[in-house]
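To the structural biology subgroup,

Please find below the input and predicted structure for Anti-sigma-K factor RskA, which we are adding to the shared reference set this quarter. The sequence is reproduced verbatim from the submission form. If anyone notices a discrepancy with their own records, reply to this email rather than editing the shared folder directly, so we keep one authoritative version.
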Amino acid sequence: MSDSGRPGVEPTFEDDMRAAEYALGTLDAQERAALEDEASRDPGTADRIRAWERRLAPLMGIVPPAAPPSRVRGALLRALPAAAGSGPGELYRLRRQVRRWRVAAAGSGLLAAGLALFVAIGPARSPAGGRYLAVVQGGGALPALIVRVDTQTGLAQVRPVGADAPAGRSLELWYVGAGGAKPLGLVGADSSQVKLPRDTAADGVIAVSVEPPGGSPSGQPTGPVVYSGKLIAE
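Predicted structure (tokenized):
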């Protein structure tokens, strides 16, 4: 349970972003279950989740329906006999997995639609709290990263989702603003915290380039930019 569940403790930026990721469907099964348990005991957590669900609900109307590829249905049908022969527990696990796939598909559709919507609207208005969310995407089924920015603390939380580095190469994260590209660090397999440049602003972009092992030798992107996302004001 987060500190915000204790009386008299204000919710943190991390608390709010966990609620946002829950509504987007990007939390894994364990994180999602833990947040649901917290919400059942903490009205503040439940309120934050509902607020994000209301905020994202209008995006559902601009996500076109899409049927899954035929190979997905075939794979599920092939798996069902084996699961059924293993007993009700295994069949239940498979059904839960299918539900998670549906959530992930809906979440990635919302993320892509939301990114397109905010790009069309233009630069975000700077909020009083200086907090932003960047959905960093490159055209795949899932976003590459979710980056949570807090200009008050000068830090950003980087959560890998679908980022994939080519063999023998590194992915490097950049903030691109009026002063050009500033390196933020390498993209790893786990969530990390990075320091923001001083000129981080509402109209900036978070980008990821492919670099030699260990990162760019010049302090500027040397390889192709494979993922990018605008900062969205919270």
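Summary notes: Confidence is low (pLDDT under 50) at residues 103-108, 110-128. The helical segments are 13-24, 29-41, 43-56, 70-85, 88-121.

Regards,
Lab coordination
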